[in-house]
């Protein structure tokens, strides 16, 4: 479904992502793991077209996305929940959600009820400004907004980072249910190994901008964890 081949991503002249090749299949819950600064966020930004320069290939259902601007990649089916959430603080919850619908294939402007039902707090605060929500509520808003773009694949950058534990549990369960019950393909950048193990069927570990290991989640052994993940 999502095929990355020899993908490089640059910050100016510095190559932060080096020759990454990975393939994500329909229905996968694919976790991207690795220590701080190994290039996990850069990988997602490269797939989304947010880097100043990229070489290689990003294919979604066979269609080459390299060369397309980010909004066209969103319309092609990439949903994105960025690190820091990217909520528009002066916009209300409803307006933030409507932004997501503009990348959808159909129903522009329609806030689907099933998405609000995933996160009831958003319904309650629908007219509140995004900037007045707590971090956890903003994260729920960012996920809901991405879902309203009707993505083929949802890419999330550390969605549980810095969030209070009761909301973390809720977010984790929603993501697991979206994958298992609705068949949504998910790519998750995550430091929370427990969640990544519980939710994923496949993983890749990055090291210095390259893929060090990838495979089925059962192959994520303690040795690999010590070698690549434990600080
Ligand atoms: N805007 C930028 N300009 C230049 N270099 C950057 C920029 N953002 C990140 N880098 C560098 O690119 C490399 C990869 O960073 P990246 O943020 O992708 O790592 P990460 O694995 O997501 O880390 P973390 O877990 O801390 O979020 C690091 O060496 C980082 O210093």
From TrEMBL:
Keywords: Amino-acid transport, ATP-binding, Nucleotide-binding, Transport
ABC transporter domain residues: 2-231
Any GO BP annotation: L-amino acid transport
Source organism superkingdom: Bacteria
Molecular function GO terms recorded: ATP binding; ATP hydrolysis activity; branched-chain amino acid transmembrane transporter activity
A Pfam family per the record: ABC_tran
PROSITE patterns the UniProt entry points to: ABC_TRANSPORTER_2
PANTHER family, alphabetized: HIGH-AFFINITY BRANCHED-CHAIN AMINO ACID TRANSPORT ATP-BINDING PROTEIN, HIGH-AFFINITY BRANCHED-CHAIN AMINO ACID TRANSPORT ATP-BINDING PROTEIN LIVF
Family classification: Belongs to the ABC transporter superfamily.
This protein's name: Putative branched-chain amino acid ABC transporter ATP-binding protein
Organism, scientific name: Nitratireductor indicus C115
């Amino acid at each position: 479904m999502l095929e990355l081949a020899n993908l490089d991503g640059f910050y100016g002249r510095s190559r932060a992502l080096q020759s990454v090749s990975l393939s994500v299949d329909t229905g996968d819950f694919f976790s991207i793991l690795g220590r701080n600064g190994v290039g996990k966020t850069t990988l997602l930004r490269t797939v989304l077209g947010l880097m100043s320069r990229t070489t290689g290939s990003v294919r979604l259902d066979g269609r080459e996305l390299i060369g397309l601007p980010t909004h066209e990649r969103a319309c092609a089916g990439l949903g994105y929940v960025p690190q820091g959430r990217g909520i528009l603080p002066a916009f209300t919850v409803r307006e933030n959600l409507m932004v997501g619908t503009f990348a959808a294939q159909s129903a522009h402007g329609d806030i689907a009820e099933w998405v609000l039902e995933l996160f009831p707090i958003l319904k309650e605060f629908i007219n509140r400004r995004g900037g007045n929500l707590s971090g956890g509520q903003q994260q729920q808003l960012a996920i809901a907004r991405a879902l309203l773009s009707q993505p083929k694949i949802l890419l999330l950058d550390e969605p549980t980072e810095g969030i209070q534990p009761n909301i973390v549990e809720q977010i984790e369960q929603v993501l697991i249910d979206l994958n298992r019950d609705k068949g949504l393909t998910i790519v998750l950048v995550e430091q929370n190994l427990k969640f990544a193990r519980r939710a994923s069927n496949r993983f890749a570990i990055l090291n210095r901008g390259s893929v060090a290991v990838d495979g089925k989640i059962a192959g994520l052994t303690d040795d690999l964890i010590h070698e690549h993940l434990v600080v």
